[in-house]
Amino acid sequence: MADSGKESEISLKRLPRSQKKKLARANKLQKIKEKRKSKKDLKKLKDKAIPNDTTRKYSKSIWKQRLKTALEDETSQKICIDFSVSNMMDSKECCKFAHQFNRLYGANKKSSSPVHLHITGVDKESELYKQCSEKNEGFEDYLMTISEKKHFELFDKEKLIYLTPDSDTPLTEIDSSKIYVISALVDETVEKNVTLNSAKAIGINTARLPIEEYMKRAYGNYTFNQVLTTNQGSYQIVYIILGAS
Ligand SMILES: C[S@@+](CC[C@H](N)C(=O)[O-])C[C@H]1O[C@@H](n2cnc3c(N)ncnc32)[C@H](O)[C@@H]1O
């Protein structure tokens, strides 16, 4: 066998230059064809293994089902997003919240145990509602409850905990029997005590994220900005609650 290999090498060497060129071209063409074929085969394999559209449809049906269950199951964790603050915001701030809401809903969608989102104190004529509808495709059909009633008109006050950065009470655990309220407020020039005072006036308990306590432990005795910035605020809190539920 080895000899016949050597022989063919020698006979190749003996070929006229034009024949050698022809052969080289044929070899090159053959390699290109093989490369194309293996690419095609790989694509066929991939298409067979991951039928993209079907997978997308499948995962969509899963998150839809989970969100529906969260809406129907009385025991699921509830979170109210208080839209009654809409009159305190200008158009730019409403737009910022609309983008925040996109992430907030997205986080809930991706969660294996989503919460029942209640959008409360809604005024459908408000700039906030309009911006949310514009920036979140299908907003009005989202799997959540939208209500013109405020959180304290929908639920027992004793069950409500208004999350506000100015509360004296650190939130150390998530109690699934409580309903947490987060304001949709985006105030570029952070105004202290806005939500704390309105919660107090209604007689609702409040809590703040324990940023101070946890950050002190990690980084020593510094003071930290308690207010989650406008583009973190509500959706970060929902992340925390989702993580705990
Ligand atoms: C941008 S903050 C608005 C701060 C506003 N000055 C106020 O009085 O609430 C938007 C909302 O995110 C929530 N939030 C932000 N930081 C928080 C914290 N550290 N603890 C609890 N809730 C917080 C509150 O519900 C707050 O109303």
How would you describe this structure to a colleague?
Keywords: Methyltransferase, S-adenosyl-L-methionine, Transferase. This is DgyrCDS743. One of its GO terms (molecular function) is tRNA binding. The protein has 245 residues and is α/β, with parallel strands linked by helices. It has a domain at 75-244: 3-Layer(aba) Sandwich (Alpha/beta knot), CATH 3.40.1280. 53% of the residues lie in helices and 10% in strands. The protein has nine helices and six strands. It has helices at residues 2-14, 17-49, 52-72, 91-110, 127-135, 151-154, 194-202, 211-219, 233-244, and strands at residues 78-82, 116-120, 145-146, 160-163, 179-183, 205-207. A six-stranded parallel beta sheet has the order 3-2-1-5-4-6, with helices on both faces. Strand 1 (78-82), helix 4 and strand 2 (116-120) form a beta-alpha-beta unit. Helix 4 packs across helix 5 (127-135). The termini are far apart. 25% of the residues are buried. The model has no long low-confidence stretch (mean pLDDT 84). It binds S-adenosylmethionine. The site of S-adenosylmethionine has 23 residues, from strand 5, helix 7 and helix 9.
